[in-house]
Design a protein that fits this description.
The longest helix is centred in the middle third of the chain and has 29 residues, at 167-195. This protein has two domains: 3-164, NAD(P)-binding Rossmann-like Domain (Rossmann fold, 3-Layer(aba) Sandwich), CATH 3.40.50; 170-287, Orthogonal Bundle (N-(1-d-carboxylethyl)-l-norvaline Dehydrogenase, domain 2). With 288 residues, it is of the alpha/beta class. Strands 1, 2, 3, 4, 5, 6, 7, 8 and 9 form a nine-stranded mixed β-sheet that branches. The protein has helices spanning 13-22, 34-44, 52-55, 69-77, 82-85, 100-112, 125-131, 142-152, 167-195, 200-207, 215-225, 235-252, 257-271, 282-287; strands at residues 3-7, 26-30, 47-48, 61-64, 91-94, 116-119, 122-123, 134-140, 156-163. The model has no long low-confidence stretch (mean pLDDT 97).
Length: 288
Amino acid sequence: MANVSFLGLGVMGYPMAGHLAAKGHEVTVYNRTASKANAWAEQHGGWAASNPAMAVSEAEFVMCCVGNDVDLRSVVLGADGALTGMQKGAVLVDHTTASANVARELHAAAAEKGIGFIDAPVSGGQAGAENGVLTIMCGGDQADYDRAAPVIDAYARSHRLLGGPGAGQVTKMVNQICIAGLVQGLAEGLNFAVKAGLDAEAVVDVISKGAAGSWQMENRYKTMLADKFDFGFAVDWMRKDLGICLDEAKQNGARLPVTALVDQFYGEVQDMGGNRWDTSSLLRRLRH
């Protein structure tokens, strides 16, 4: 069992930190909204700190899950940031979906202080976090990953080191690129089936058992057909992620024509007021 800190208690971080406590780790938490950290500590029996530096002062491992590059730099590099309080030899594991550039920046800043850094964005959504079955894509140094792996096991079904600093974030970009195209294709297929007068549920029951089957089809088609889009990953978050993908593509020369198009479609969903609808709401755009 380890002394662990968790920075950021959003819809993902709150249950992830809970799994660490449930596995017997000693957990100290920090959240920008202090009342949430206090509520977590009361529920799980850990401790709440008033700033990141205090939260990490005795931690062997520091887990972080915040909103974006700006939030990440603030909580790690700020005046009271994690790197001002972490012990030499500790490992910082960042679960934020952020840019590969900031991952490399933080890896370098941590290394100067003798601290390990793993970029480790997650897939599986809120349900995956709550059930402790996330898939985690990691980048960094093998020795740091090997040390952190048993702690990450508390909330992950699978995790793997994909390469050096930034490799986890780039892998998460691949994940989001694939999801964007799949959801748009599923939305178009379901809309086409309805317009053709077919029983769309019966259609999915058949085609899901063949080459068209996917996680998105199995887990989203019923709510999509019911015009319910309040379950899963929000459009605002997906647009943030796709923006990261498109920026990285400008650097590495990859062409992402479908991703760029679907990003525009999500922009139209936002214009419809769907900022907090889940990503399968691409179907509503086709209906209207």
